[in-house]
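Write out the 3D structure for:
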Amino acid sequence: MMSKASQVIVLCEDKLQEVVVCRFLKKGWGLTNRQVRIVPQPHGEGSGEKHVRNTYPSELNAYRTRKKKAKTILIAVIDADKGTVAEHNMELEKACHLKGVTPRHKDDAVMHLIPRRHIETWLAYLDGQSVNENDSYKPSYEFKHRESDCSELVYGFVHKCKNNTRIQNPPQSLNSACKEFSERVRAVLQSD
């Protein structure tokens, strides 16, 4: 399946988030490397979470400029850590206000992926684990320096998502992400 989106902008905290999102987009929706623009993560310049928060307003502006000419999507990925999905959505909105940028509109193809506690929680769930979003799954699912090893977990999820198969008892933050995907970006990704 080829996507009708000409570009997806991906803003994330770390390499593992990047790999998970890119595998999802490429395997599930037929996007090519040329269609996915990864916003570079700073090396040794503070937290990835701060990078996403600080960069999000300018990438939202870039999305709005580009969407006037071509089908474009912005995906921002930020771990909730010990906070909530709602709190981190508000932080992204606040970052926009601080930089004089109008926050995302309901009809914007702008998705916030906010795994709670970390993206590793979702990987543990996709691996069949019973997860609690207050616990850390980093020790077992970090994939440090071997991020592509998570691909099979993502591909199983892609198959369910493509076929609109309901997943059983997902973590609440993954459920929120699936809802955002359905409401904000699925139509832009799907071919005519």
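The longest helix spans residues 48-67.
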